[in-house]
Design brief:
Blueprint: H1 3-9, H2 15-23, E1 27-29, E2 32-33, E3 48-50, E4 53-54, E5 62-67, E6 97-98, E7 107-113, H3 116-123, E8 131-137, H4 143-151, E9 164-169, E10 172-177, H5 184-191, E11 196-204, E12 207-208, E13 218-220, H6 223-230
Parallel strand pairs: 7-11
Antiparallel strand pairs: 1-2, 1-3, 3-4, 5-7, 5-13, 6-7, 8-10, 8-11, 9-10, 11-12
Length: about 230
Amino acid sequence: MRIDKFLANSGIGTRKEVKELLKKKRISVNDEVVTEAKTHIDEDNDFVAFDGKRIEFKEFLYIMLNKPQDVISATDDERHRTVLDLLEEPLTKVGLFPVGRLDKDTEGLLVLTNDGKMAHELLSPKKHVPKRYYVELKKTLSKEEAAILENGVELETFTTKPAKVEFITEDKVYIIISEGKYHQVKRMFKCVGNRVLFLKRTGMGNLGLDENLAPGEYRELTSDELEQLQGLK
């Protein structure tokens, strides 16, 4: 791999910024200063350092984010704060994007990655990946209304697939769905005469949101969590 690509993929900077670092002799390979962007390295075995500190290369990154409200699931927006605005360098420079989306006023689990193939497979409608949401409702929900939701309800353009409702209290529930249409959870509860006051995604497949992450906080997935995510493909 070319050294400039290696550095850019590692979040050290853009290709342009990386070339400047090389010119300033701040990059070394196996303790030898490298100044040419086209220099090829063995990304698995060479010791690449920036100002003497080793750079650990990862082809892809997988980040668990607890998305807060009033932040949109996008990489760039002129009017609203995006999930990428929550990240610190070098994560802002490695091409991360959200896998799927959460509504602006919805909190919870969102995975960010630069692995396009995995993201495509996770989002494929054929996979029917279950998504778990915590819901606070304006009114109490009856067992009969929950059964209606579980059997599927007719929205404006489609009928929802079977869901699962788990009661916490009469007005606080978990709902598990395998789709992700626009405002789907809110629209489903509206169909039974209720209104969602608070919505938070707590799980996707076997991957659960880390309860220690406050809204806006994030961390890399552990190897076990990554295996769980990859098992959804």
